Amino acid sequence: MSHVVLVGCGVVGAAIAYELSQVPGLSITVLDKQPPAQGATGAALGVLMGVISHKIKGNAWKMRQASIQRYETLIPELEALTGRKIPFNRQGILMLCFEGDDLASWEKLVKCRQTQGWQLEIWDTAQLHSRCPHLNNENITAAVYSPQDRQLDPTALTLALVKAAESNGVKFQFDVTVGVVESTPEGTLNINQIQTTGGEIAADWLVVTAGLGSTGLTASLKQPVDIRPVLGQALHLQLEHSLGRADFQPVITGDDVHIVPVGKGEYWVGATVEFPADEGELVPDAAYLEVVRQKVIAFCPALSEATVIRTWSGLRPRPEGRPAPIIGHLPGYSNVLLATGHYRNGVLLAPATAQAIRQAIIGG
Q: Is residue 279 part of a domain?
């Protein structure tokens, strides 16, 4: 029996735990200093921009494609296993194009996706008004509709993954802090023991999926991975009725902000992208959130009448000086894997990340 220890239980950690729980011969323990989905996952909007992404080749596209495909089976699979409902919007994503946007690049992407077996549509303003009469801005020149992209509730997904993994024998320990990690110096280092506030745990594999917490943990292993926070804020709005047509409620995105329908005339709107200054803590600034609200009102005026139910914020884990995410072996260690630093794509890439870690352990 090979014992795998995961540190971090956001959506990525939970997805890995569930994926590994289906591999015979593995004993899996997940550690976190807080309950699941409390960090970046709990603040995410769950917009899965895969097909509509301009990534068309290499690992960046392969991971998006793998995740979009897996979600179509994963959501009903988890709902059947756990009895939990996971809100999953299958009505696609609509990207608005404004004056000055490069429509030719979208036309090229449409053709590329056709060759890859995916669908994208470019709508003119007449088509847009017919399908989404609530979108009204004279600077909108066209829209790109991606019917195969999705949106889901990240917290509901994570809790379902945890429950499904538990039913498969995974052990979860929350309110536990990881301390010193013991290793054997045999050329390439090999982890064998993990000390926590809950006691010592033997480990054949250590998977670091702790987001911003990954920096401190890797530093204790003398191979620090620099992951820095980027603040995001969002709004939960309430209208008396749904925007536009009740039978067509896709995610609307434009000017780098999203309108996410969550049912009964309610919408999530966000998110800001706030980088830290050289000194000091990242603190949510209401002025930035108001900018986001005004942006969506500019192309969806009906939202000016919406009531703000709540606002929230979270810190995204962004790798410094290297692409996101970081997936693979920690340099110098034979049995330490990184699955962290997903920045704005943790929910989107969770299934593909889980598949990659499974392959690394099975083939490793």
A: no
The answer to whether residue 4 sits within a structural domain is yes
The CATH number of the domain where 336 resides is what? 3.50.50.60
328 falls within a domain: yes
For the chain, the three-class secondary structure string (H helix, E strand, C coil) is: CEEEEEECCCHHHHHHHHHHCCCCCEEEEEECCCCCCCCHHHHCCCEECCCCCCCCCHHHHHHHHHHHHHHHHHHHHHHHHHCCCCCEECCCEEEEEECCCCHHHHHHHHHHHHHHCCCCEEECHHHHHHHCCCCCCCCEEEEEEECCCEEECHHHHHHHHHHHHHHCCCEEECCCCEEEEEEECCCCEEEEEEEECCEEEECCEEEECCHHHHHHHHHHCCCCCCEEEEEEEEEEEECCCCCCCCCCCCEEEECCEEEEEEECCEEEEECCCECCCCCCCCCCCHHHHHHHHHHHHHHCHHHHHCEEEEEEEEEEEEECCCCCCEEEECCCECCEEEEECCCCCHHHHHHHHHHHHHHHHHHC
- The packing angle between helices 346-363 and 11-20, to 10°, is 40
- Structural domain span for residue 216: 1-89+149-226+320-364
The per-residue pLDDT for range 278-312, each reduced to its tens digit, is: 666 788 999 999 999 999 999 999 999 999 999 99
242 belongs to a structural domain: no
Q: Which residues of 315-353 are buried (b: 16+ CB within 10 A; e: fewer)?
A: bbbbbeeeebbbbeebeebbbbbbbbbbbbbbbbbbbbb
At 346, is the pLDDT very low, low, confident or very high (cuts 50, 70, 90)? very high
Considering its fold, how many domains does the chain have in total? 1
Report the alpha-carbon distance of residue 87 to residue 98 in Å, rounded.
30
* Residue-wise pLDDT tens digits, 178-230: 987 777 766 667 888 999 999 999 999 999 999 999 999 999 999 999 999 99
* Neighbour-count burial of 86, counting CB atoms closer than 10 A to its CB (0-12 exposed, 13-18 middle, 19+ buried): buried
